[in-house]
Design goal:
RWD_dom, elongated, 177 residues, Ubiquitin Conjugating Enzyme, GIR2-like, single chain
């Protein structure tokens, strides 16, 4: 742990310098995490006034609910201020950090209701080497088809003339003229 302790402390100092008032150290019992290590809270506020748009388009909140390393719980504290949504991201470094991800917890400080946290179902095809190679073959075939459409038909049908090599051109007598 001594190897990582200095690195963790430098990261915490950097976060304090960057986030200033939004970054604070909290007691581990307030964090909701199962740890006795130092815990920190970062307050995240929405900067736009479009809360409805944000609630529909925020995948971060929905992902936090699904991840095994993250837990989500709601507070009933809501007060009226300029920001319609405010979240607290609580984290604690594990002893093996940075080799192991930190413990995370997302806490609703105000403005998020349970109904806003619908779980998004992944859609589409997962990208693997095999699916990528199959897609690339289809894509290259599609490009070849487009290139073939751009060529005039006479270029495809006409026999190609053989180009003369340097020796053949010289022997043909054109060089002396």
């Amino acid at each position: 742990m001594t190897d990582h302790a200095q690195e963790q402390e430098m990261e915490i100092e950097a976060l304090k310098a960057i986030l200033m008032d939004e970054f604070e150290e909290i007691h581990p019992s307030e964090s909701g995490l199962n740890t006795s290590n130092r815990c920190f809270q970062i307050k995240l506020s929405l900067q736009t006034s479009s809360y409805e748009h944000h609630a529909q388009a925020d995948p971060l909140t929905k992902q936090a609910q699904q991840s095994s390393h993250k837990r989500f719980f709601l507070d009933d504290e809501t007060d009226e201020s300029s920001s319609p949504v405010q979240l607290g991201l609580i984290f604690s470094h594990t002893e093996k950090y940075p080799d192991e991800i930190p413990l995370l917890n997302l806490k609703s400080i105000k403005g998020i209701q349970a109904s806003d946290l619908a779980i998004t179902v992944p859609h589409g095809e997962p990208v693997t080497v095999e699916t990528f190679l199959a897609w690339r073959e289809r894509f290259e075939a599609e490009l070849a088809l487009e290139r073939a459409k751009l060529l005039p038909e006479s270029a495809l049908i006409a026999p190609k003339e053989k180009k003369l090599t340097g020796r053949q051109w010289f022997q043909s007598g054109r060089a002396s003229a």
